[in-house]
Backbone:
């Protein structure tokens, strides 16, 4: 919880912050839903989950989901990763924030995407919650981004939401 000194300055109308907040209408501005997405790398592989619910039922995606009220987004990422794959991760790195209108057919949704690398660790996902499956996909370029897991071959357009953008950005960030 953020703790700050009381702010007593008055504005041009002669009211202080406490008085201002008493009359503030939080519904004046529309608010997006907040989500977190997580890209987990292992060597030349990435962890994907097959969606068990609409939208994009049956499509492959990075693990992730909606923030709970008053939850920090990095905590959302950790919680969703564990709920969907049974993997616990403490150290996550921010990849970026994704807010393009229409990125989620359910409405205005802004996502913070995180990444981690588990190369050299014994990490085996177990699909749970709203993930039907959780699998490691080998990353290659043929010439476009291609993901392979046994007989499953995915191209960018085969991923749910804007997860191809998130994955590309995470791959780029990982190479830095």
Residues:
């Amino acid at each position: 919880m953020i703790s700050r000194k009381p702010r007593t300055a008055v504005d041009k109308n002669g009211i202080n912050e406490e008085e201002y907040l008493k009359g503030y209408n939080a519904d004046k501005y529309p608010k997006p839903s907040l989500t977190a997405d997580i890209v987990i790398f292992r060597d030349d592989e990435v962890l994907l989950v097959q969606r068990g619910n609409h939208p994009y039922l049956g499509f492959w995606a990075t693990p992730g989901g909606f923030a709970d009220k008053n939850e920090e987004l990095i905590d959302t990422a950790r919680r969703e990763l564990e709920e969907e794959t049974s993997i616990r991760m403490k150290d996550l790195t921010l990849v970026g924030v994704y807010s393009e209108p229409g990125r989620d057919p359910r409405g205005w949704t802004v996502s913070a995407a995180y990444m981690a690398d588990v190369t050299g660790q014994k990490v085996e996902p177990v699909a749970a919650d709203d993930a039907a499956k959780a699998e490691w996909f080998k990353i290659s370029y043929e010439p476009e981004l291609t993901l392979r897991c046994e007989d499953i071959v995915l191209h960018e357009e085969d991923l749910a939401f804007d997860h191809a953008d998130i994955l590309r950005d995470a791959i780029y960030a990982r190479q830095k």
